[in-house]
């Protein structure tokens, strides 16, 4: 199927379109009808998500339900995706890299790009698994499993030349559009403080926000060095589906739009610093860092100390506040769920900066 066949709106995902898209996987499939159910309101910002229920014949092993992921219909958000190559990164990840990572990812039945601003994926339906609510935070067993899988992912590409061979689509912190985040951060600070300083940010956060904004270029220089590993970048619990309830038997990691090569520590800092309520982070962070370090050693990493990890996490805890500042300044706060989510991220991320004395790690 040609790139020009990428649908522009969800209504164009018809039975005929699905037949054409899925015949690359199931040559005899004939989709006779499709029903669509919207998913993820107030969770995903860059994409339309729908669960599709298909009436089909000719392919008895093809699923009856799958997930449609389609670019957002809003031009401003598609321009953001274009600027950061988000659709290109995700499609390339699933087509070229997903089978190399030591963490379960959804099976993708079809993936296509049409230029930089249009993308479509048809993926495995994970509705039998459970994704935690980020505002409420994950259960301890879930965050422990997330740390275990992250250690395996980090260790798999430690010192590997595989990442540099994918540099055409997999950026690092030297790439211009990634470095542009420093200017974006500074531009968003006034609106971010207006929105969140009085209602969500902890005492002393204004100084942290303004200091990080001033030093963001230096900080990104630091992130361009050190141990470069495969970084999911948006390693949060609403991008994770867990098998099992409290025991969390397995984890499936979704949403690879922001995947990059980055200094070790971003995914850990983002998971702990934005997904755990402040009190839970204070209680669990120490044991989770030791768990992560043990997982790295089990994955074959040597010569990387707890002091190294603490320094890398401090740098990345400051840098990952870009998610809070840029996202929070631009989020649609008329959506109550968005407002609550970004308020929680604001409180948690800058509490992590202050509680960890991260500003002391600035170069």
Summarize the structure.
This protein is an alpha+beta fold. The chain has helices at 15-22, 75-83, 86-96, 140-156, 176-196, 205-223, 266-275, 278-298, 306-319, 321-330, 336-355, and strands spanning 30-39, 47-57, 65-71, 108-113, 119-124, 228-231, 240-243, 250-253, 260-263. It has two domains: 3-124, Phosphorylase Kinase, domain 1 (2-Layer Sandwich); 140-361, Aminoglycoside 3'-phosphotransferase, Chain: A, domain 2.
Radius of gyration: 20 Å
Total of helices: 11
Specify the overall morphology: globular
CATH architectural type of the largest domain: Alpha-Beta Complex
Which structural class do the helices and strands define? alpha+beta
Q: Major sheet: order of its strands?
A: 1-2-3-5-4
**Distance between the first and last residues' Cα:** 50 Å
Low-pLDDT segments, ≥5 res: none
Helical percentage: 40-55%
CATH topology of the largest domain: Aminoglycoside 3'-phosphotransferase, Chain: A, domain 2
* Share in β-strands: 15-25%
Count of structural domains: 2
Query: Largest beta sheet, briefly?
Result: 5 strands, antiparallel
Strand segment tally? 9
CATH class of the largest domain: Alpha Beta
Tell me the series of helices and strands, N- to C-terminal.
HEEEHHEEHHHEEEEHHHHH
